[in-house]
DNA sequence: GGCTAACATTTGTCTAGTTGTATAGTTGAT
DNA sequence: ATCAACTATACAACTAGACAAATGTTAGCC
């Protein structure tokens, strides 16, 4: 029976400390020597734990200076206007997206219903990976009505964000009509893309967004890495 | 006729060595490899002997460090005046304490209630390890009202005992109002500090102490290594 | 003030040693 | 044949200590 190694429980304890706000973002953790005393282990064991946390992008060490908290799990507000890039930029993190697949095909029954189309109508399908500070945060799939937005594929390829691509295609503004949230376990493929372990918790959201006229423009399915994001449903707007 | 197994005779030989004082309490036994050479057997056979001795509480192994002769249990009287250092000194053992963590933070509901404060009031939190003859005996957490004892943190760092630190801060005497005792199993971290194995029995006490005016000054939580201490509730006090 | 030198602190890396665990095989008695 | 005791080997997890490299701090000097 493989018990959980000590270093792992230390990593969990420290991660928890950070999540609890005991060490704030950018703050310096106690030196390794002090931590090893606190946990009653050798310094190397603490280092193993810190290495794990560094790999996950949670802390960052500077030789001679100390170990610093890199980032708390990103808050991801879900309201009327859900904008991945803007949400992250507001927290001082660098957003990026990576296109995994882009195609135009016939809409399924579910997709057609969500977008107010007839089944079989052409839709653009965007599969992408959303990153924060280079760390994968979410897998996103977005379905758009192809007849309404004929040039969207090229725009999605070139623009940095979906919002920007839609703007190029004439959708100046759009708001979210509905968001559904459930919890899942990561499949092998999802785990690979999000760089988490298979079976790790995942937040899955399904959303419908519409332009200012109320015409649906996007049907989205997003899988968030559960331990890197906290979805917040704001009281405002 | 079942001949006595080799491992059993090895256990007897080693037990005898300890009884003869060839290895003192707290001392490190030779590494398993060396012992297996000495007895001319495989390392696993020595391990079988050491496992038996560990089960009897005679020795305790720390991965990567070695096998150590366990300490004899100490009596620990709980009465009106509970003083770790004095208790042990009276038994002719050398007490010591080791600060694991020291911080000031807002009181939880439970802590505030015990100390007669409002939740969120500042408290000093002391996490420490209590040793007898260099052997860890108990993990102690003590919560003090910070507003009443502003300089306690420094005092705790410098003074040898909590009693001494409190005296420096103006608390000449204090008595125990209440002590609750339950049995738990050691968590991984506790086991590491107390140098016992994970899942070993632990005595947990929760206590409230007050000064001569009856004002609570300390809310304590202590975890004793179950096989190293015997709590005694004296008739006297 | 601004500069350098010296010192202490802290992380990075390396080597070596020790216990924990798993797997597979041998031996001998019943 | 079966089972317990023991051997053999390998690797993982953790300890221990030492030193190098980068950083932060302080004192002294111009």
Explain how this protein is built.
The structure is a homodimer of 237-residue chains. With 237 residues, chain A is α+β, with helices and mostly antiparallel strands. Chain A folds into two domains: 6-69, Arc Repressor Mutant, subunit A; 74-232, Chorismate lyase. The first copy, chain A, contains eight helices and ten strands. Chain A has helices at 6-19, 32-39, 43-55, 84-90, 109-115, 152-158, 162-168, 188-194, and strands spanning 59-62, 66-69, 74-77, 95-106, 122-132, 135-145, 174-185, 201-211, 216-225, 229-232. Chain A has a six-stranded antiparallel β-sheet with strand order 4-5-6-9-8-7. A two-stranded antiparallel sheet of chain A has the order 1-2. A two-stranded parallel ribbon of chain A has the order 3-10. In chain A, α1 packs across α3 and α2 (32-39) crosses α3. The longest helix of chain A has 14 residues, at 6-19. Chain A is elongated and about 65 Å long. At the A-B interface, α1 and α2 of A face β4 and α8 of B. Chain A binds a DNA duplex (30 and 30 nucleotides) through residues 1-3, 5-7, 31-33, 41-45, 47-48, 61-67.
User: Mind telling me the C-alpha Rg of chain A?
Assistant: 21 Å
Largest sheet of chain A: 6 strands, antiparallel
Can you tell me the overall shape of chain A? Answer: elongated
How many separate domains make up the residues of chain A? 2
Number of helix segments of chain A?
Answer: 8
Helix content of chain A: 25-40%
Oligomer: homodimer
Care to count the β-strands of chain A? 10
- In CATH, the architecture of the largest domain in chain A is 3-Layer(aba) Sandwich
- Give the CATH topology of the largest domain in chain A: Chorismate lyase
CATH level 4 superfamily of the largest domain in chain A: Chorismate lyase-like
CATH classification class of the largest domain in chain A: Alpha Beta
Mean pLDDT of chain A: 84
Low-confidence stretches of chain A: none
């Amino acid at each position: 029976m493989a018990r959980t190694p000590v270093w792992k429980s230390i990593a969990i304890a420290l991660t928890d400390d950070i999540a609890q706000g005991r060490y704030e973002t950018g703050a310096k953790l106690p030196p390794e020597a002090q931590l090893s005393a606190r946990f009653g282990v050798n310094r190397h064991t603490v280092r193993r734990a810190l290495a794990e946390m560094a790999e996950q992008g949670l802390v960052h060490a500077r030789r001679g200076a100390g170990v610093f908290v890199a980032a708390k799990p990103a808050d991801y507000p879900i309201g009327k206007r859900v904008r991945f890039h803007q949400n992250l930029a507001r927290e001082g993190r660098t957003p990026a997206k990576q296109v995994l697949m882009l195609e135009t095909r016939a809409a399924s029954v579910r997709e057609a219903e969500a977008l107010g189309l007839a089944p079989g109508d052409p839709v653009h399908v965007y599969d992408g990976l959303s990153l924060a500070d280079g760390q994968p945060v979410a897998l996103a799939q977005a379905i758009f009505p192809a007849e309404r937005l004929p040039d969207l594929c090229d725009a999605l390829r070139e623009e940095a964000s979906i919002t920007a691509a839609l703007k190029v295609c004439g959708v100046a503004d759009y708001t979210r009509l509905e968001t559904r949230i459930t919890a899942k376990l990561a499949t092998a493929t999802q785990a690979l893309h999000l760089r988490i372990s298979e079976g790790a918790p995942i937040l899955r959201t399904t959303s419908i967004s519409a332009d200012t006229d109320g015409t649906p423009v996007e049907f989205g399915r997003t899988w968030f890495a559960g331990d890197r994001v906290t979805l917040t449903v704001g009281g405002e707007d």
